[in-house]
Structure formats: structure tokens, C-alpha cells
Amino acid sequence: MSTTENTESRERGKAPAGERVADWADGRLGIYSLAKSNMRKIFPDHWSFMLGEVCMYSFIIIILTGVYLTLFFHPSMNEVVYHGSYVPLQGQMMSEAFNSTLHISFDVRGGLLIRQIHHWAALIFLAGMFVHMMRVFFTGAFRKPREINWLFGFLLFVLGMFTGFTGYSLPDDLLSGTGVRFTEGAILSMPIVGTYISFFLFGGQFPGHDFVARFYSIHILLLPGIMLGLMVGHLILVFYHKHTQFAGPGKSEKNVVGMPLLPVYMAKAGGFFFLVFGVIAAIAATTQINPIWAMGPYRPDQVSTGAQPDWYMGFAEGLIRYMPGWEINFWGHTLVLGVFIPLVLFGLVLGAIALYPFIESWVTGDKSEHHILDRPRNAPTRTGFGVAWVTVYMIGLIGGGNDLIATHFHLSINDVTWFVRIFFFAGPVIAFIATKRICLGLQRRDRDKVLHGRETGIIKRLPHGEFIEVHEPLSQEQLHTLTAHHQYEPAQVGPAVDENGVERKIKGSEKLRAKLSGAYYGEDNQIPKPTVEEYKEITSGHGHH
Amino acid sequence: MKKLSARRRHPLAAVVVLLLALVGTGGAYALLAPTSKAQADETSQSLTIEEGKKLFSVSCASCHGTGGQGSSDGPSLVGVGAASVDFQVGTGRMPAATSQGPQVVAKKNIFTQAQIDQLAAYVASLGAGPEVPTSEQYGPDGADIAKGGELFRTNCAQCHNFVGSGGALTKGKFAPSLEGVAPKHIYEAMQTGPQNMPSFPDTTLSEKNKKDIIAYLDAVNSPKTVNPGGLNLGGLGPVSEGLFAWIFGLGALIAVAVWVAARTAKAKKS
Amino acid sequence: MSSQDIPEENLPAEQDHHAHGAVSVADERDPFSDPGLPPHEHRIQDIDERAAKRSERVVAMLFTVSMLATVGFIASYVTIPKDKAIFVFPIGHISALNFALGLTLGAALFCIGAGAVHWARTLMSDVEVADERHAISAPPEVKAKVLADFKQGAKESAIGRRKLIRTTMFGALTLVPLSGVVLLRDLGPLPGTSLRHTAWSKGKLLVNMNTNEPLRPSDVAVGSLTFAKPEGVEESQEDFQNVMAKAALMIIRLQPDNIKDKRELEWSHEGIVAYSKICTHVGCPISLYEQQTHHVLCPCHQSTFDLSDGARVIFGPAGHALPQLRIGVSEEGYLQALGDFEEPVGPAFWERG
Question: Does Thylakoid show up as a keyword for this record (chain B) (predicted)?
């Protein structure tokens, strides 16, 4: 007993303090085994791989500033008279929620800055998630084994939207109150259950005295709690799957090329957190957001023009603005299609992008893992679908801002609405066709580049007077990079008779899959990538310019 | 849509022609105006009306009729009152260009205040209407800014936005921004309801109410207004905030990310 | 769908995977094959110690600036009064405290990040390394072991054999969350017919929102716009917001011969008509009244109603006309309601009918 104590104490005396702490922790948490595989984990370098970090860091910033705001905010709808330092509201009746938000903005030193950081970070968080999601989509990073992480990310985006909505509704100002009223109207439009859900949500008739307190617990506890869990899961999966990478020399489906977590990524990713926080703080220092004092307290009989939600809800706002006012009355009931259809469309449009990975993997029938990213041009149908989806989304945003577009471009608001109504249908079709053609054009250019070399821009005159442009053959690195992508064959409907010669029934789903697969990979839907034979024939035939 | 926007463009030529005509004729009348003080005192009112009538026949009669009775090109001015004239001419809306868009817009005023007063006096003589307010009526003394804010949100913000940035109406019409509009003109607009704006007569929006609203606007939308948070992005709310977050917020962060991820310059191979 | 359904040729061709790090030599046989990672090239800082020193100084300077900025932050917090405004071009008048705190905080944070990244980019090793990926799915023997273990566990529990236990357990687990659902019942009262009624009733005077005085017909001029509430409703009362969410009223006056709708004319008083201010689309207080066209536009979603024609919808997403309040004049000569709205005001709902 005494001997072991002695050796232990001697060892303790020798090892550096940091190591002793790590030993202590290892004995309880097993940190050495954990660090073994992760400390020098490799991450590839590409700016677009940092979009997710923008989201994570702004989420952390939102949590930090949000906790500070809860120290001063009163989630109560009791009416009080304002006696704070903002003169144009003194003596006005307002809810305690609005009153305490004014208090944060004018009477807590630094309160306005934190409020503005919180709100700007929220807008950037959602914008970052949108762009991150598009990066993942257009490079095909959602393919096996990352489909679940795609869904995690999608859920984070949707929950982020609702966390944002419940958050900006808390101050109970005239703008956000108008948004809450819209929510009530949208809920009322649901057949059968709408009225009940509305009464349960608002504790009776709108606006009641409850929704701020209820939104508060949803905004600061329920939704961010779920999001934090999803984000941790998202990160664990990124670590577990290891990051995807673009094709290039030395990069394959079986490896990941980049720099180790310790020290380079620790410094870069850690440093990036401070960079993101710094940029957002500077924006909050100079640019005003959601000036609730200018909007005044909410009253259901008051309104302002230019009543829009924050940008991430703008798409829903657009849907509701350009929908025609259809309403069906029957047997003493009203079916409010003018509001209910946009509500359903909102879910459908978001759901379409969420389910896309599963649709694509069904069409390709590909069950293998993918760690090398696609260039968007090499998946024309997917890219076309993605651009069409973004177009629908953008049309929604334009529709949501139709009044500002009308006033700023001197147009008629009715014309803008009609434009949006038409382009809600025409826009995605045009976008799909145009994108696909552009992708195929780029594929052709890549093919030419591989077979005929890079255009140098040097014009040479041949002895017999002909002018030609000198083409420089590509290096093997470039040749490899341009030909590394997979090309699928369109799936065929299997033979009508099975191996025993018995006629079998061809399922409708099988036919559909063959059709879709043809649209994805059939003739004219992808340019066959050059083969080694073609390359050799051309290079030996022409010789090198 | 194209056709409409084309119609909304005001041909500058018409304005220039009008300007020249008015500088010529209006200036000439002003020069010819009687100078004798005693005479002016005695007959100043009728003389002013007389001068106004002359100005009117040159600048307004082609649309509003020689007696202000109106025509197919312009409404009757009988009973609109001096306040209406002071607003319409003082903000440059009248005289309007001959080809109109969805609505007549404010432009540079081409008359002197004296000429406007003469025109106003003449039109007021055609039929009783609201008078031009005095500075006591629209001045800041004794105004309740907070009450003005509440009144503004009840009566005005639905068209003119929270702090008066303006907003869209149907078919290309719009409620203009209230930034830089003179208090007198705001008062007159409420009183008379120019174009599609409804009027807010003293019987429903009292003199004191109007004074409060003007004081509120002065506090929240004037060059001296403090935007504690910084740039107010046009006071347009979430749309401009969202654009800013995308372009400058996310844009700056992507620029930073490009720097973080970029390869460091390699030493040149010797 | 199992993988057997997929014909072999639909799957991507297996690619050659060259060992990484192979020396880059043009492959005669396959010019498209992977030449392997390019050789590492040195940065200026790797070979020139003076350049490395320069980088070190830049990093240290950035960290120092960050420290100074934090000191500046604290100094601003202590010294700048919270109501002080300064003019900064091109921002305009801004709170001095917000500006100073934000910029110092931003600088303090940004410089830490910039220092760390500059350190990583110029001084830390930039040799690219490759990590092998490992198969995610388990090898067959592991899968077999897990399945066997699971079967063993299921067998030992006898869940498959003792059906009664299984059935009742699932029943209990299904029912127990119901308690939670039941508890939600008191979130709010049942709607009943409350959405059908407002605070208006026969004989209630129309009180001007601006002056808080009852309106006389002579107060309301043609072309004017007035908002009203029912008499007896005060802002200080507890249910003011709920009352106004349904009772808000918009009053205009038309020339009686301009009124196209017969019922509208009947329910008006000398051309004065009173409509609900709450949009029938999703409930915004609609009130963008154009006095020349008699159209009223909703600022939220642009539903447009023609107030001279029974407030029917002429554009936008609203599904039905604005409800009209029947008005008359009391014995004292004030405008008064002749009853409640005959239909529910505000957004449509399932039970509206």
C-alpha cells in the first residue's frame, strides 16, 4: 500500500501538470482513446466547407446573447404605462414584454448591442443554413452515407425558421404582432381543427394574454433544445463519416486529404468562430435591426404598410400574397383554400428538398458510398431540380416583398403579383431547362478540354495561311480531375420473362424508375465522358500543338 | 407593366416648358404688381385675388377651367380651399405634367410663396374651403409626441409606414415618403386629402391631434432623428434587413472563409 | 427494393485507386489515372526565417490589438452615457455607446480570429495528409453476432411466446402519453360561437378613435377616413386588445348615388358606411383607403375591396367581402350601431359557414 502511494506520488512529481490533469481525466473518461482517432483527424480545405461553421458559430452566438437577453426580458402581456427614456413612447400603454424590450434597448448599457447581435446572428444563421444546404445539395454530398445528416440539417433549418419566428414575436411590437395575427388567420384556415388549435395556442381569442409567455418557452427552451441536440448529432456524424472532398490528384473514395485537426484546424476553425463573432458584432455596432421603438406597441386595430416577416419566413409570406382568394362554403362550413393551400404548399416545397436524396438514390439504384463530391455540371438533372427549387423559393421571396418592389421600381403592385403568380409555375420549368442545358454545355466543354487540351488564346498562323489557336494538352492531374466522376447508365425495365422463362409482371414503379433514370442519365441528358481510347486516338492523330 | 412604367415617367420637356412659361409670365406679373403701400393696404385682398386669377389663367386654367370649374383634364377647384392650393402647388404637384401616370408626384416647386398665396386666395374666393394653417397650428409648441405616435399608427402608418417611409397602393399608386415634407404641407394634406389620400378634417382628427402627429414625425423622421442602432436601412423593416444580412453579413463571412481556407502563397521554385 | 433488382451495368464502374503519395509520372497506359498527391511545396515562411518572424510579429500584433480593444470596450462601458448620440458618416445619428461597444467588441473578437488563422496559415505545417476511410457498415461476422445476441435476448425475455405480456405492454405504452395530451385541454377555452360576435350591439355609439368622442354624421366628410370603437371601450380596460381585434371599425362617407350595392346603401346613413377594419383574409387591420377609387387595400397581403360596392373583393387573396355594420342615428344625433355584424368578422374559419 505504502509502496504504490510512493510510486504514484513520485510519478506525479515527474509528469508535467497538463499531463497529470489528462491522466486524471483519462482514468475517469477514457479521453486518450477518444483523442487517438480524433486529435489528428483530417479535414479538407475549401471555403464552401466552412459554411456549416458559419451556422454553428452564429447559433452559439445566438445562444450566448439570448441568455443575456433573458436576464432582462419579461415575457408578460400585462399592460403597463411606459416611463422609460424613449420620449416618443412615454405615457403609452404597452405590454410588459414590449416595455422590457425598450428597457433593454435604451436603459441597459450594451443591451441594444446584444439585441442587435442576437437578431443579426439569427438572420445570418438562417442564411448560412440555406447556403450550406444548397452547397451540400449541388455537390451531391447528401448521398450515402450522409442521408440522415441531410435530414438533421433540414430539420435544423426548419426549426430555425420557427425559432426565429417565435423570437421576433416576443417583443409584442406592432410589426411582429401583425405577423402573429397572420399566424392566427393561417391556423384558423385549417379545416375542422383550425379554430380549436387557435384557441388552445392563444388561450382563447386573439390576441389574449398568453402567447408571449408561451412563445417564450418555445423560443428559449423547446426549439433551441431540440436544435442543440440535432446540431451535436450533425457534428458527430460529420466526424464519424469524415468530410467529403472534391476530386483531384491523390483524392479517392477511400481517403480524405487535408490538414489535421490539431493544430491547423483547431486554429482555423477556432479562429473562425472569433471572426464570425467579430463580423456580426461590427454589423450590430453600425446597423440597426428591428427598431421596435419606431414600430410601437402592438394593437390589433393598428397596422403599418411594409409588414413583412424576417427573410426566412418571406417565402411563406409570398405564397400567401399571390394565392387567389378561393373560399368554398358548403353545409355550414367554410374551406378557406386561399389560406390553406399556401399553408400546405409551404410544407410541400420544403418537404420536396428534404426527400430528394431518397428519390435520387431510388432512381440511380446506387447503393455504394460517395465521398467524392460531384461538380454540379456532372449531375445536370439534379442541378436543374435544385435551381428550379431555388427559383420557387426566390419567387416566394419576391412575392413576399411585392409592395416594396412595386414602390422601388415604380411598378404596379397588381402587376408584380400577377408576374409572381405566373412565374410560380413558369419559373421553375424555365430554370430547370436552362440549368440542364448549361450543365450539358459545360460537360461538353470539359470533354473538349480533355480531348483537345486547354485553349491558350495564342493564335498561330500556319504556313498555308490558316489561323489556328494553340491548344495545350492537360497535365495528368487535370485529366484525372476532369474524368474522375461516375457516369450512370439509365436503368432498364428488366426482361419480361424471368430466368425460368415464366412471364413476370412488370411493376408500375419499375417502369417509372426506368423512365426517370432515362431522364437523368439517358442519351442527351449527360455527355459521355471521354475514354482513354478516344484520348489516345486524338492525341496520337493530331500530335501535340 | 412596361407600358405602365413608361407612362409613369414624366417627360421632363413638359416641365421645362412650363418652367419657362411661368418664369416669363409669373415674373412679369410680379414685376407689374402695384407697389404703392397705401393702395396695397386698401385693396390688398382683392388685388391678391386679382393677381392669383391672372396666374391661374396662365398655369391652371387649361385643365381646371378658366373659372376653376373643372374640365375633363382636372377636377373642379370650387370649395377645395386655400390649404389645398398651398399643398398642391407648394409641393410641386401642381401644375402637373400633361400626361399623368397613376398619380401626380411631388416635384420642384416653381412658384414663389407670394405667388402661391395669390393663387390660393383666388381659388379660396371661388368657394369656401380649408384655410392655410398658421405656424401656431403645426408648430411644435404644446404637442404630445407620444400621443402623436399613437395617432400616426392608427391613421397614417397603414399607408405611410411606421415612421413615414411610404408604401404601395393599388395599381402603381403609392403613399409617398414623409421625409423632408414641411410640417405645413403635412397639416394641409391631412386637412384636404390630396388625390387618393383620405382627408382627416378637424371634426374627426382635431387640430391638436394634427399638431401631435407632426411633432411625432419630426421626432422620428427628420435629419436630427437618432437611430440608436445605426444605419436604418431606409426604415423599411425586415426586407431591407434580410437583404443586408445576405449581402453584407453572409457576404463578409464568406469572404473571410475564402481567406481562411485559401492556400498560403508558395515560395517560388528556384 | 433490394440491391438484387439493380442490373450490374447501372452501378458505377470500379475506379482504380492508386496508392496516394505515388510519384507523379504520366501513365502511358491510362492517362486519366490518379497521379497521386502532388509533392509538397514550401511556403516563403518555411524557408525564410525572416518571413516567419514577420508572420510571428503580425500574429502577436493582432492579439495585442484584441487586448487593447477589450480595454476600450470596458472604458466605453464605464465612460459613455447611455443616452449620448453622435453623428457618424455615413451612418447618421447613432447611440455612441452602441457604436463604441460594438466596434471594440468586434475588433477584440476579430483580431483573435485573424491572429489564429494567420498563425495557422503561415507558421503551422501545411503538409497535406491523407487519412484512410473505413467501412461504415459492420463486417458480416459482426452482424451475425449482433443478430444472434438479439435473438438470444428476445428468446430469454419470452416476448414472442408470451403474447399476453407483449400485447398489454404495447397497450399500456400507447395509452400512457394520452395523459399528457389530456393535460393540454386547459390551454384555452373551446371556441363556441365567440368568433361570431363582437362588442357591437344595437344602440352602441360609434366613438372616434382619435378624439374619444362619439361621432355625429356631420363630422364625417366625403372623402375622409375615420376609425371608431364601440362606446364604453377604453384602452385601460383589460380586454381592450381582444375587443378591438374584432370590433375595430372603419368609417367613410360616399355620395349616396355612388353606392352601387343596394344593401350597403340600406345599411348606411346619409352615405356614411361603416365596415369592419379587420381583413377577411388573415386579420390585418385593413385601412389603406383610396378616396377617389373607393378601394381599400390591405397592407399585409394586398387584398383589395371596393367600398362602394358592398366591399367585395376585387384583388388579392381574401375570400369574401368585409362585413358591414348597420348604422343609424341616436336620438341625440350621434351615429350608432343598429346591431352587431351579421356575419363573423376577420379571417374565415371552418365553422364560419
Answer: no
Q: Which three cell numbers stand for residue C193?
A: 360561437
Query: From its phi and psi, is residue C320 left (phi > 0), alpha (psi between -120 and 50) or beta?
Result: beta
Known binding residue B190? Answer is no
Write out the H or E segment, with its range, that includes residue B29: helix B12-32
ipTM of this predicted complex?
0.91
Query: Domains along chain B?
Result: 2-126 (1.10.760), 135-220 (1.10.760.10)
Q: Would the annotation count B185 as a binding residue?
A: no
CATH number assigned to the domain with residue range C196-337, chosen from the 4 options 3.50.50.60, 2.102.10.10, 3.40.50.300, 1.10.3720.10: 2.102.10.10
Using CA atoms, how far residue B86 sits from B22, B69, B111, B120, in Å, is: 17, 18, 11, 6
- Quick one: which of C303, C109, C29 has its CA closest to A336? C303
d(CA A532, CA A476): 12
Reported as a single tens digit per residue, the pLDDT across A343-372 is 999 999 999 999 999 999 999 888 899 999
Question: B63: annotated binding-site residue?
Answer: yes
Which residue in B153, B216, B257 is closest to A50 by CB distance?
B257
Chain A contact partners (≥3 CB pairs within 8 A): B, C
As given in the structure block, the three cell numbers for residue C11 are 452501378
Residues A496, A498, A501: CA angle, nearest 5 degrees = 95
CATH T-level topology, domain A45-246+256-345: Cytochrome Bc1 Complex; Chain C (1.20.810)
| B166/A54 Cβ within 8 A | no
Give Cα C120 distance to the centre of its chain: 39
Q: In the predicted model, what is the mean pLDDT of residues A92-109?
A: 96
- List pLDDT tens digits, range B198-255: 999 999 999 999 999 999 999 999 888 999 999 989 888 899 999 999 999 999 999 9
Q: Is C269 helix (H, G, I), strand (E, B) or coil?
A: strand
Whether residues A320 and C194 touch (CB distance < 8 A) is answered with no
d(CA A425, CA A442): 27
Q: What's the rounded Cα separation, in Å, for the pair B193 and C287? A: 15
- Closest-CA distance, B38 to chain C, in angstroms, reads 42
